[in-house]
Design goal:
The protein is mainly beta. The protein contains three helices and 14 strands. The strands form two sheets. It has a twelve-stranded antiparallel barrel with strand order 1-4-5-6-7-8-9-10-11-12-13-14. The protein is globular and about 45 Å long.
């Protein structure tokens, strides 16, 4: 849960990071063959790395990505959140700058810097993470994320996820992923989680997704039973 640890010193301003992502996107937009894409979703629960970010409540989410022919891209994504009452957090904005492309036949790589921003909070929850995802044949992936300020703390955290998608036909696929979050420096404990999704392509560009999430007991000790454990998430999502 991204809100579980925070610092009480002065807020760091999020505007420089927003400007970085927007400036990167604008420069990409000026390049030949730049492509603007977007996504939107309505979900019954915003679940991130196995833990709810909305205390089990629904979320509306949307994002935009501008990518150049060279593979460099910038993106902005947002969602409502519901953290502990004393944080006054109600929204999340993610700003990303990265590169994605083929590195060999059947192999693709995406590396990026991601800034998590919570503009409505009265405490500093903001943090930055370096991420990389290696994909094979478009259906199997390994993702790694590292931050020296994991979850808004002043400590290191590393996240790893292994996943796969299994297309059944043109309209239906299964996706499964298992992740482990190394948080010993933050909580003196780490946790594992897994998820299994069934995804139906209703009618382009709409998809219906149902996901079962589960965490181990360590996640419950770190975040509490209200945020970790088993839960079902249903969402309608669209890409355009």
């Amino acid at each position: 849960m991204k809100h579980a640890i925070f610092r009480a010193h002065e807020l760091r301003m999020y505007l420089p990071f927003a400007a970085l992502a927007i400036a990167g996107a604008m420069s990409l937009g000026a390049a030949q063959a730049a492509e603007l894409t977007g996504n939107a979703a309505l979900t019954s629960d915003y679940v991130w790395r196995g833990t709810t970010q909305t205390q089990g409540d629904a979320a509306a989410q949307a994002g935009f990505k501008l990518a150049g022919a060279s593979g460099f891209y910038g993106s902005v994504w947002g969602s409502n959140v519901e953290f502990a009452p004393d944080t006054h957090a109600s929204s999340e904005l993610d700003f990303t700058v990265g590169w994605a492309g083929q590195i060999a036949p059947d192999w693709a790589l995406d590396v990026n810097v991601l800034r998590y921003q919570y503009p409505s909070t009265t405490v500093d929850l903001n943090w930055t993470e370096l991420n990389g995802t290696l994909t094979y044949a478009g259906n199997y992936w390994l993702s790694l994320g590292f931050s020296p300020e994991a979850l808004g703390s002043e400590e290191n955290g590393t996240y790893a996820q292994l996943g796969a998608r299994f297309p059944v036909n043109d309209a239906f696929r299964i996706e499964a992923a298992a992740g482990y979050y190394f948080l010993d420096d933050v909580y003196e404990e780490s946790y594992a989680h897994g998820q299994l999704s069934a995804i139906w392509a209703i009618k382009a560009p709409l998809e219906l997704r149902v996901t079962a999430h589960g965490t181990d007991s360590a996640a419950k000790r770190i975040f509490g039973d209200d945020y970790a454990g088993s839960r079902i998430e249903a969402a309608v999502q669209a890409s355009f």
